[in-house]
Amino acid sequence: MKLFLATGNQHKIDEMKKILANTKIEIISKNDIDSLPEVIEDQDTFIGNALKKAREISNYTGFPTISDDSGLVVEALDGSPGVYSARFAGVDASDKDNNKKLLKLLKNTPKEERGAYFSCAMAFVSPEGEEYTVTGRCDGVIDIEEKGSGGFGYDPLFVPTGYQQSFAELGDEIKNRISHRAKALKKMKDYLLNNKN
Questions:
Q1: Residue 7 annotated as part of some ligand binding site
Q2: Which residues, 6+ apart, have CB-to-CB distance to 10 below 8 Å?
Q3: Kind plus residue range of the DSSP H or E element containing 141
Q4: Is residue 78 among the annotated active site residues?
Q5: Which class does domain 2-195 fall in?
Q6: Does residue 68 have a known ligand-binding role?
Q7: 8 is in an annotated binding site
Q8: How is the subunit organization of this protein annotated in UniProt (predicted)?
Q9: Residue 176 contacts by C-beta under 8 Å, 6 or more apart in sequence?
């Protein structure tokens, strides 16, 4: 089975290929196709955005497609940045800009009230109209300053439950085992291998 992974993130492509290695599922990505339409992620939930992207890309390529949408949910900010995580500080905001805005908003919030979690929604859509969604979640807290040089996005600020270091300090091996995306990927892998072979 050929499966299209609808993401522009090479890290996600490599990760998915690794997880599905030695199975009957072959990953196809942006690296294998000349061009892809841009999908506007304008839904108000992670699942809504993941489904929209998977539907449009599957329709365009003719392949069964997987897409995900993920972000950071901060309890003290009533769930923000949520689906706006990538553009929290503006449409063209950098990771640094987003982290700076988050720290500013939490400036007077004590560490024990900085509970947060990363959420990932992943959608599978086939050209025949089959749809399946899974979610993954990783709980933690937002630190008072950025720490570590690994990862991306809010990783330097996010300390997962059970650890003293940020995602940016823990490294890919641990992050890829406990992260929201890793948990969603495992569920999706189980579904695909049990239903698509």
A1: yes
A2: none
A3: strand 131-142
A4: no
A5: alpha beta
A6: no
A7: yes
A8: Homodimer.
A9: 15, 182
How far is 71 from 12, CA to CA, in rounded Å? 15
Q: Identify residue 50 by its one-letter amino acid code.
A: A
Per-residue pLDDT of the chain (197 residues; tens, 9 = 90+): 889 999 887 877 887 787 777 888 888 998 898 888 889 889 999 999 999 999 999 999 999 999 999 999 999 999 999 999 999 999 899 999 999 999 999 999 998 999 999 999 999 999 999 999 999 999 999 999 999 998 889 999 999 999 999 999 998 889 888 999 889 988 998 998 888 65
d(CA 99, CA 127): 39
**Separation between Cα atoms, residue 89 and residue 100, nearest integer Å:** 9
Q: Which helix (H) or strand (E) holds 123?
A: strand 115-125
Is 44 annotated as ligand-binding? no
CA distances from 39 to 7, 53, 58, 67, 86 (A): 10, 6, 12, 11, 15
Of 44, 68, 69, 172, which is the active-site residue?
69
